[in-house]
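Tokens as discussed.
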């Protein structure tokens, strides 16, 4: 989970120059910038959750011997894990998105 948030933070930091240009030259509102960053992070997490669900379905027989008192295809557990991972992606993307709206675009361009 910590790796997910670090990956999202690094990705949004690297793309700050694009975000600053988008806000300053195209006149985008900060709300649309935050929405874009958060939606991209959630989409990335959703792809990861979908891939994980496919792997769980494919490896259900192998996973059954490793789990105690739970089936590898328990829908309630899989839904909870998917929800938690999407929530972590949301929480991890909010701070970098908020930070991207607070920095002066010209200073960011000079720094890059």
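Sequence:
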């Amino acid at each position: 989970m910590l790796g997910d948030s670090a990956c999202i933070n690094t990705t949004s930091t690297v793309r700050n120059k694009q975000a600053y240009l988008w806000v300053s030259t195209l006149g985008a509102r900060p709300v649309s910038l935050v929405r874009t960053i958060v939606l991209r992070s959630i989409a990335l997490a959703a792809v990861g959750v979908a891939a994980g669900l496919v792997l769980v379905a494919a490896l259900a027989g192998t996973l059954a011997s490793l789990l105690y008192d739970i089936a590898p295809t328990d829908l309630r557990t899989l839904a909870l894990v998917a929800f938690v991972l999407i929530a972590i992606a949301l929480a991890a993307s909010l701070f970098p998105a908020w930070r991207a709206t607070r920095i002066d675009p010209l200073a960011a361009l000079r720094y890059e």
